[in-house]
Amino acid sequence: MDVLVGLGGSDESIKTLRQTIDRTQAVGDDLTVAILEKPEAKRSQDEMYEQADTLLTEADIDAELVRLEGDPGSALVDYTEQGEFDQLVIGGGTLSPMGKIQLGPITEFVLLNSPTTVKLVR
Amino acid sequence: MEPTRIYPDDRSGPFPSPPTTIDDREGRPIEIRAADDLTTELEDVVAMYDEFDPSDRAQGIPPTGEERIRDWLETIAEESVNVIARHDGAVIAHATLVPDVDEPAAIEERNEIEWELAIFVLQAYQRAGIGTQLLEHLLGHASDVGIERVWLTVERWNNPAIALYERVGFEATGSESFEQEMAIVLEGEDGSG
């Protein structure tokens, strides 16, 4: 299966990538990792790129690593439409102090606009 | 600590303090009381959530199953501020404020941090005016113990809940997504503001 994972720069992104790497190793998917431009994130796009590169190298996975510029939600859906992906993977939200699941605006945009099956990682 | 969320310019209040007993719209006497040490009443609250209709869950809470309910309540119990409502001795509604901090035990001043609000009313007691009373008494109690900034998220399509929160003074804040964020600033203990 051709899998695209989209990452902002949060801890949620790291968790999403780790789980996707585990899944890729288990089933032998073809993986593409897209690093989004999200200035308000904990890690800059460059830092996230570096960290993703390190995690992929450590796991010995030969994935394509790309930077997507512009609005993160629409850039990711655009890229998905142009490629031949079977699945788009994104983070599945954060938990509030109360334990409420919170999905951000990027997640909402992707869910409502992606032509490809979307997986949310919890 | 600087707040990370946007808050209304005007403060809201005063709100009534617990304890009180009200008659709901069905004529049932409902006792509303603060329960700051939730751990001593934990089993009664667990019993309420165990009866909660899972179709009324919001954003994953309350969890289902007694064990997961107890784990969740124990996690938030320690430093949270709570008001519970009872009918015939049984807990039928619970409202809580949970501090938005990494180490709840290290809280020094309650007015310096932000508190997340949630309220749950057992199905058989909904649409009887209990939610409004419980919410107002939680905010009254919060003000009594020095809390000023309260926020919540509510599913964007849950119009009755959003109307209830607006009625007591919450204003919509935050970005567009599946959840609407709302916030309120409470008057100080001495009514300052």
UniProtKB/TrEMBL annotation, chain A:
Any one Pfam family match given in the protein's UniProt record, by short name: Usp
Coiled coil: none
Domain called UspA: residue spans: 3-122
InterPro entries membership: Rossmann-like_a/b/a_fold, UspA
Protein name, UniProt field: UspA domain-containing protein
Organism: Natrialba aegyptia DSM 13077
UniProtKB/TrEMBL annotation, chain B:
Pfam families: Acetyltransf_1 (PF00583)
Keywords: Transferase
The keyword Oxidoreductase is assigned to this record: no
SUPFAM superfamilies: Acyl-CoA N-acyltransferases (Nat)
Domain N-acetyltransferase: 30-187
Region (Disordered): 1-29
Top-level lineage group: Archaea
Keyword Magnesium among UniProt keywords: no
Single Gene Ontology MF annotation: acyltransferase activity, transferring groups other than amino-acyl groups
Annotated protein name in UniProt: GCN5-like N-acetyltransferase
Organism lineage string: Archaea, Methanobacteriati, Methanobacteriota, Stenosarchaea group, Halobacteria
